[in-house]
Predict the 3D structure of the following.
Amino acid sequence: MKFSKSQINRYSRQIILKKIGVVGQKKILNSKVLIIGAGGLGAPAAMYLTASGIGKIGIVDKDNIELSNLTRQIIFDTKDIKKSKSITAVSKLKKINPDVSLQSFNIKITSKNINNIARNFNIFMDCSDNFRTRFLINDYCLKNKKILVSGAISKFDGQVYTFNFSRKESPCLRCFIPNVPKNLDRDNCEYEGVIGTIAGIIGTIQANEVIKEILKIGSSLCGHILIFDALKMNFRKVKLNKRSNCICNEKK
């Protein structure tokens, strides 16, 4: 593929980077990323990935925009209240970068429809707010040997995980949390609260991890958990080993 003059200008600050260059930018433009959740994590992540030139982005979210979302879901504004998150997000993202092919999935992702939604994407970003969805995405990516970048936030804390299931040594989410917690319905900021800025920080880190995995540059977060404490301004990277009795250790 050849870059247009507009594309050279648009991506010039990325192309000039030795670790990206023309070849790397082409990889970005040829990538396909599915974002599950257009909320606090998905909104900033989608904006940065769109701006960077990801070739195709899918946005999965069945919810409508509420007033309480606006402190952290920065892609939306007051006029968007009661509108579909996925459809509205795609509409806004198109204005950021016309190079990107954007697809809205205004539906809840389930075991019955995940393959139809996900089969045309090669990198997955879990920005959901409940364990049931997280485990579903984890298990699908594990089965299909996909790359998964997962994020979680609560109060003043955030976590990022990268699982590269094309690598045999990659752990999975179940290595860290073996089973769906009993309080799965309380796994979101509605009950515990969250500072808006933590969503932007973690969502942006997720986007950065996606770009690193596409380009195969830097140190992969695979095999670790990145933990951020916004009050102490402290980042910790903790080793996450494969659990011997986890499903990701089962012989295929």
